[in-house]
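Researcher: Let's do a round of design. I'm pasting the C-alpha cells now; please hold your answer until I've finished.
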C-alpha cells in the first residue's frame, strides 16, 4: 500500500474489502464520548494503585512535581497526535506506525514505532493478566476468610478464560460497552482507594522520608518510580486507533470530537490519580504497599468490591490494548502473507494471543518491577517524546519559537525517563526475583 499522495484516493476493491474487515478501520461511526471512555480505560490502568508507592519513593516535593509534569506533558503530546491524525488532506493516519512512516519514511517509520508499540501493548496485556488474577484472588480472600487459598496461577487462568471469549469481538466500537464499564470502574475503585484510606486515618508514627534505607536504594527507587508514573500515562499507544473509529469530513474533521473526548478523559484521569497518590502517601507514608488496596483490610466487603472493580476495569483495558495488536497481526497475515480475511484466521490469531499472554503472566508474576521497566523502556518514548519528534520532523517550527521549545523540553524529559527508569526497575526486578521463590 503506497503512502504517496497520488495513490490516496484510489484503493482497490480488494484493499477496501480488507480495510472493512480489519479491526481498526472497519467501523467509523463512533461518538466523541466513545473517545473519552476509551481513553480513560487505556490511561487509568491498575497503575493508579501503585502511585502512592511511587510517591513514597519520591517524597512530597519531587513526587508532586513528577505527577503534575507528566500530566501536562502527556496531555500536550496527546493533543499533537490528535492534530496529526489528519494533517494530510484526504488521508487518515489510523495507526501509530502510519504516522511514523509518514514522518520517518516507509521502512524506518515501521522500525521505530512498531517494536515500541508492541512492547507497550503486549506488555500491558501481560501485566493486566497478572493484575486481573491477583485481584480475583484478593476478592476471594476478602470474602472467604476460612477457605483454602487458591494459587495465583489458577486465578490468572480464570481471568484469561474471560478473554478467550471477549477477544473475538471484531473492532473498537464493538467493545465500547466494555470500555465504558471499565472507565466507570476505574473512577470507582480509585475513589474507594483514597476515601477508605482517609477513613482509616494517618497511621501512627507516619514517616514521609523516601522509603529506601540507604542513599543508593533511594536513587534506584526514585528511578523506578519514574517508570511507574510513565506507565500511568499510557494512552498514546492506542489514541490514533481510537480516533480512527470517529467519522470525519473536511468540514468536520475527527480532531474536534476526539479532542473533546481527550479533555474529558484527562479531567477524569486527574480525579483518579492525584487523590489516590497524595492521600495514599499522606495516610501510610513510606510503609505504603505497591498496591494501595492491599494495605486496606477493612471493611472487607468494600475492599472486595474495589478489587472486583479492578478486575472489570482490567478486562476492558486488556481489550483496548489487544485490539491494535490484533489489527497488526491480522494486517500482516492478510496483506503480507496473503491469507484470506476469514473468521477462522481471526479466531486462531486471537485465541493464540490470549494464550501466550496468559502463559507469560503465569511465568513472570512479580508485578511491581515490570511496571517500572515497561514504563520507562517503551511507554516514555511513545507517550512523552515520539509525538514531539514527529511534530518537529513534519511541521518544522521556527527555532526558539514556543512550539520548538516545548517540543524539545518534552523530548529531553522523555529521553531521561527512557534511560533512567529501566535502570531502577531492573534492579528492583532482580531483587524481587530473588525474594520471589520464598513466597510463591
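Researcher: That's everything. Go ahead.
Model: Designed sequence:
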Amino acid at each position: 500500500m503506497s503512502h504517496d499522495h497520488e495513490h490516496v484516493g484510489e484503493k482497490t476493491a480488494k484493499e477496501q474489502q480488507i480495510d472493512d474487515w480489519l479491526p481498526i478501520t472497519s467501523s467509523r461511526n463512533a461518538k466523541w464520548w466513545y473517545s473519552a471512555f476509551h481513553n480513560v480505560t487505556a490511561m487509568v490502568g491498575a497503575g493508579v494503585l501503585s502511585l502512592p508507592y511511587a510517591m513514597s519513593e519520591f517524597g512530597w516535593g519531587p513526587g508532586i512535581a513528577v505527577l503534575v509534569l507528566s500530566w501536562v506533558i502527556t496531555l500536550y503530546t496527546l493533543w499533537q497526535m490528535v492534530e496529526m491524525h489528519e494533517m494530510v488532506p484526504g488521508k487518515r493516519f489510523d495507526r501509530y506506525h502510519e504516522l511514523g512512516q509518514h514522518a520517518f519514511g516507509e521502512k524506518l517509520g515501521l522500525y521505530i514505532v512498531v517494536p515500541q508499540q508492541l512492547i507497550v501493548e503486549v506488555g500491558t496485556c501481560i501485566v493486566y493478566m497478572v493484575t486481573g488474577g491477583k485481584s480475583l484472588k484478593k476478592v476471594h480472600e476478602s470474602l472467604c476468610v476460612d477457605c483454602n487459598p487458591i494459587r495465583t496461577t489458577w486465578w490468572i487462568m480464570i481471568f484469561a478464560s474471560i478473554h478467550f471469549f471477549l477477544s473475538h469481538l471484531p473492532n473498537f466500537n464493538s467493545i465500547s460497552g466494555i470500555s465504558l464499564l471499565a472507565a466507570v470502574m476505574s473512577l470507582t475503585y480509585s475513589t474507594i482507594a483514597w476515601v477508605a484510606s482517609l477513613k482509616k486515618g494517618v497511621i501512627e508514627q507516619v514517616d514521609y522520608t523516601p522509603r529506601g534505607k540507604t542513599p543508593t536504594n533511594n536513587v534506584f527507587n526514585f528511578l523506578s518510580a519514574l517508570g511507574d508514573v510513565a506507565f500511568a500515562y499510557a494512552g498514546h499507544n492506542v489514541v490514533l486507533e481510537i480516533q480512527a473509529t470517529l467519522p470525519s469530513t473536511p468540514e468536520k474533521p475527527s480532531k474536534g470530537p476526539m479532542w473533546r473526548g481527550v479533555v474529558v478523559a484527562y479531567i477524569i484521569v486527574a480525579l483518579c490519580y492525584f487523590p489516590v497518590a497524595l492521600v495514599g502517601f499522606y495516610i501510610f507514608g513510606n510503609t505504603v504497599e505497591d498496591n494501595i488496596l492491599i494495605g486496606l483490610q477493612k471493611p472487607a466487603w468494600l475492599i472486595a468490591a474495589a478489587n472486583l472493580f479492578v478486575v472489570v476495569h482490567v478486562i476492558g483495558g486488556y481489550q483496548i490494548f489487544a485490539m491494535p495488536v490484533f489489527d497488526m497481526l491480522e494486517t500482516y497475515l492478510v496483506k503480507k502473507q496473503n491469507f484470506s480475511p476469514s473468521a477462522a484466521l481471526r479466531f486462531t490469531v486471537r485465541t493464540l494471543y490470549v494464550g501466550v499472554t496468559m502463559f507469560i503472566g503465569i511465568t513472570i508474576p512479580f508485578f511491581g518491577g515490570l511496571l517500572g521497566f515497561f514504563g520507562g523502556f517503551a511507554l516514555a518514548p511513545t507517550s512523552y517524546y515520539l509525538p514531539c519528534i514527529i511534530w518537529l520532523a513534519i511541521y518544522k517550527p521556527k527555532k526558539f519559537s514556543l512550539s520548538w521549545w516545548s517540543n524539545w523540553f518534552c523530548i529531553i524529559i522523555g529521553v531521561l525517563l527512557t534511560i533512567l527508569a529501566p535502570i531502577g526497575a531492573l534492579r528492583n526486578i532482580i531483587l524481587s526475583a530473588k525474594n520471589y521463590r520464598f513466597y510463591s
